[in-house]
Amino acid sequence: MKQPLIIDVHGHYTTAPKALEEWRNKQIANLKTPELGPKVSELKISDDELRESIEANQLRLMKQRGSDLTIFSPRASFMAHHIGDFNTSATWAGICNELCHRVSQLFPDHFIGAAMLPQSPGVDVATCIPELEKCVKEYGFVGINLNPDPSGGHWTSPPLSDRYWYPIYEKMVEHEIPAMIHVSTSCNACFHTTGAHYLNADTTAFMQCLTSDLFKDFPTLKFLIPHGGGAVPYHWGRFRGLAQEMKKPLLTEHLLNNIYFDTCVYHQPGIDLLTHVIPVDNILFASEMIGAVRGIDPETGHYYDDTKRYIEAAGRLSEQDRFKIYEGNARKVFPRLDKALQQKGQ
Ligand SMILES: [Zn+2]
């Protein structure tokens, strides 16, 4: 069997040059007086700076750990859709997506983009479509990150099954792009951003789909639930039981043609459980590197987010299973990625 291409479906540009954050801070400082700037043209980041920020960080670790290609999106906690209004988010999303596009142009063999959307609480999601289409058509992006809670921890939007979201789903189906369901920073003191809000959102998104018939309306819609699916695999029996009480079909039929999980689970027993409970066809390799958890596990001596080690060590996986997790499933869930790879003869 040929060696799989190691595709990491979940990476963010967390190492962007400081100028980006400084621009954003000025934008936030002038929320009430946007005429005072900053202008988009005031942000100047050279190709050399971009190259350096990637080569010293993500690309270095990818080479060390043996992954080939990362689906690369803007830093999730910086999306902060709760800040300002639609125009604030539109300008910010445009800047962040363009930087990911430039990274993918500088390192076409190693990065391909996924878009952040200019969501804003209470605003019609159809306003996100121009940015989505620009990213797909002009930048060659292969997916989007969809924030189910643009309020940042207060959950003021309708559930993902609500028709409110349908304009985005229609575009996703039309362009064959999946959405990673990904919240941003928490501005609710009860929820730590990466330790609680992210995992809560993963679990919440799954349950919103479970209680609804969303995928009857959109049979080809695909969601990737990150961070190993939050609490979902661990509580699979609860979810099966709840679905049964609600007279829903078996979860394999009801949700698993449309919902996938990544491997951003930072210890071996977690990956063992994920690969035991969730069918291998629904698991995609990812690390979310360089992201939430950057340290070294003293129990193993390896980085927590070096998730390839756990896949390699997961005893129950066959070579064919690993091929699916590393490459096959990503090509299936991200058809535009598959086409881009085929065009390169891969
Ligand atoms: Zn993430």
From TrEMBL:
Gene3D superfamilies: Metal-dependent hydrolases
A molecular-function term among this protein's GO annotations: carboxy-lyase activity
GO terms under cellular component: cytoplasm
Keyword Glycoprotein among UniProt keywords: no
InterPro entries from the UniProt entry: ACMSD (IPR032465), Amidohydro-rel (IPR006680), Metal_Hydrolase (IPR032466)
Coiled coil region boundaries: none
One matching Pfam family: Amidohydro_2
Keywords for the protein's UniProt record, in alphabetical order: Lyase
Biological processes per GO annotation: secondary metabolic process
Domain Amidohydrolase-related residue range list: 7-335
Name by which UniProt lists this protein: 4-oxalomesaconate hydratase
Gene source species: Noviherbaspirillum humi
